[in-house]
C-alpha cells in the first residue's frame, strides 16, 4: 500500500525561490523584532542531543558594519543589507544541558528522571570528546540553524546570502570571541535591490545512490 504524501506548495515555492542575494536596498531596514522573529524560527532546527550550540551576533549598527567591511573582503552586502548575522558554535554547549532539560521538565516534555539521565549522559559524553570532535559537531549544527534561518527569511519576504569569505581571525578579534566558540558563517539579510542569480543543480543520478555508494573517479 502506497503512503499518501502531502506536499506543502508554499514551502516548495520558498525552496525554489530562495537564491543568494548580494545587492540590497539599504533604504529598507528591518526592526529588531523582525530579526528576532527570524531567529526564533531558526532555532527550531535540530541539533546533536538537542544541545543547541548556536550563538548569534546580530550586527545592525552601520558603523560596525563599515568596520566589518574590509574583514569581509569588501563585499558590499555587509554595509547594504539590514543586518549581518554571525553564526557561532559553542564547543562546550553541554555546559547548558541542565538549563535545557529543566525547561523541558517545566514544559511537561520530560520527567525529572529522564532529565537527570540525559544531563548525566550529555555531560559525560560531550566533555570527553576531543576539541576537534566538539568543533565538528558545532559546525554541523551551525549549518543546520543557518539554513533554517535563510529559509525562514525567504518565507517572510526577506533575502539572504551565506558568507564564508571573511577573515575569521580578524572577526574574532573585532568582537573578542573566546576560543570556546567556533565561527560558522556570516549571513546577510534584508530586502533585495536586485534578484539573486538563479543557478543550476547537478542531476540527482550524479549525487544520490540507493543502498550503496556510487562515487566518481
From TrEMBL:
Instruction: Print the keywords alphabetically.
Output: Oxidoreductase
Q: Where would you find the membrane-spanning parts of this chain?
A: none
- Name the domain of life this protein comes from: Bacteria
Q: Give the CDD domains listed for this entry.
A: MhqN-like
* Domain Nitroreductase, residue spans: 15-191
Recorded GO molecular functions are: oxidoreductase activity
SUPFAM superfamilies to which the protein is assigned, alphabetical? FMN-dependent nitroreductase-like
Write one Pfam family the protein is assigned to: Nitroreductase
> Belongs to which family?
Belongs to the nitroreductase family.
Query: What protein name does the entry list?
Result: NAD(P)H nitroreductase
Amino acid at each position: 500500500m502506497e503512503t499518501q504524501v502531502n506536499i506543502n506548495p508554499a514551502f516548495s515555492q520558498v525552496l525554489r525561490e530562495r537564491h543568494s542575494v548580494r545587492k540590497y536596498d539599504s533604504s529598507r531596514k528591518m526592526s529588531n523584532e523582525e530579526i528576532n522573529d527570524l531567529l526564533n524560527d531558526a532555532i527550531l532546527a535540530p541539533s546533536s542531543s538537542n544541545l543547541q550550540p548556536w550563538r548569534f551576533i546580530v550586527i545592525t549598527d552601520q558603523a560596525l558594519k563599515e568596520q566589518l567591511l574590509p574583514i569581509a573582503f569588501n563585499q558590499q552586502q555587509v554595509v547594504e543589507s539590514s543586518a549581518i548575522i554571525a553564526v557561532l558554535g559553542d564547543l562546550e554547549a553541554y555546559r547548558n544541558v541542565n538549563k535545557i532539560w529543566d525547561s523541558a521538565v517545566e514544559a511537561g516534555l520530560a520527567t525529572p528522571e529522564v532529565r537527570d539521565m540525559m544531563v548525566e549522559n550529555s555531560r559525560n559524553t560531550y566533555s570527553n570528546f576531543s576539541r576537534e570532535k566538539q568543533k565538528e559537531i558545532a559546525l554541523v549544527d551551525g549549518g543546520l540553524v543557518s539554513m533554517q534561518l535563510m529559509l525562514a527569511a525567504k518565507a517572510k519576504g526577506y533575502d539572504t546570502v551565506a558568507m564564508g569569505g571573511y577573515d575569521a581571525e580578524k572577526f574574532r578579534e573585532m568582537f573578542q570571541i573566546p576560543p570556546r566558540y567556533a565561527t560558522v558563517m556570516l549571513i546577510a539579510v534584508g530586502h533585495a535591490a536586485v534578484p539573486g542569480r538563479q543557478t543550476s543543480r547537478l542531476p540527482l543520478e550524479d549525487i544520490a545512490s540507493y543502498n550503496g555508494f556510487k562515487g566518481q573517479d
